[in-house]
Amino acid sequence: MILLVGATGRLGEALAKRLLRNDVKFRAACRNISKAKWLADQGVEVVHYDAATGDGLPEMLVGITQVVCCIHGLLGKSRHSIDNIDLRGQANLIDACSNAAIGRFVFVSAHGASADHPSEFWRAKARTEQYLKASGLDYVILRPSAFMDLYAHDLIGSAVLARKTVFVLGSGRTPKNMVAVADVADAVMTALSRLDLSGRTLDIGGPDFLTDRDIAQTYACLSGNPLKLRAVPNFALRVLATTIAPFHAGIARVLSFPLQHNSQGNLTHDVIFETEHLGIKPQSLVSFAKMKIAAGSAISTQELR
């Protein structure tokens, strides 16, 4: 049986749907059980798990042979901070899995994770990768690039489709790779089943390297909507991040990303080869945006009936 840790997150939900579709037995672990009601309604065992406390860890692993961990504290604050979730929480989970002799641990990290990354989130992911490698567990580490669903659609494309002004953080001219959550979920499914991936660390990404301005223009061209775009300059991001940090470290962290990524220079590392090695042909932004636009049009048509 598989344990899916983080079943109510964006990736966790996509993965849960695939497990259900393939009749794979799994246990869903999440912090807010009410968000997993749709899984319980379909007969999935849902258990409460808060990585910040580790409560219920040994019981949660009873009967489990494989674990997928896709939790993070990127937007967390106070007790659900990066320290508590991505460092101590992940380490406690890995230790418990090692003690329970789990057959395979699939860890969803982040593309670019390194000990010297300017962001604490990527540094934490790198530390957990090393901790997992030293644990003695059979593992596969997946490093997806930015989620297209969030960074392309939610933060940019949805504003274009709603005919609202798009606010890009910083210049909006730094190219980055993005991957659809659906493609990452497919990669996790492959990592669970292929024995030859044992001990591998794989970057997962899409075929495009686009700037925020490119993304906005793509949505505008495909939808036919006018593009209204404003850039939030770097000095304003610094002020906003500093002001918000005492109240919500997660939001301040996201506001700082453009500044940190600019300091890294070119982020267009080729990730497509390893993605296709898993048998996955990742979606382009154009195909992804077309799907989102079509889905929105279908919803609008239903509302008019």
In short:
The chain has 12 helices and 12 strands. It is of the alpha/beta class and about 300 residues long. It starts with a strand and ends with a helix.
- In total, how many beta strands? 12
CATH class of the largest domain: Alpha Beta
Q: Strand arrangement, largest sheet? A: 3-2-1-4-5-6-10
Mean of pLDDT: 87
Please give the count of helices: 12
Percent of residues in helices comes to 40-55%
CATH architecture verdict of the largest domain: 3-Layer(aba) Sandwich
For this structure, the CATH topology of the largest domain is: Rossmann fold
Radius of gyration: 20 Å
Briefly note the structural class of the backbone: alpha/beta
Q: Give the distance, in angstroms, between the N- and C-terminal Cα atoms.
A: 44 Å
CATH superfamily of the largest domain: NAD(P)-binding Rossmann-like Domain
Overall tally of domains: 2
Give the CA-based shape: globular
Unreliable residue runs = 263-268, 300-305
**Per DSSP, what share of the residues sits in E-state strands of 2 or more residues?**
15-25%
Topology at a glance:
Blueprint: E1 2-5, H1 10-21, E2 26-30, H2 37-40, E3 45-48, H3 57-60, E4 66-69, H4 82-99, E5 104-108, H5 120-133, E6 139-144, E7 146-147, H6 148-161, E8 166-169, E9 176-179, H7 181-193, E10 200-204, E11 209-210, H8 212-223, E12 229-232, H9 234-244, H10 249-262, H11 272-277, H12 285-304
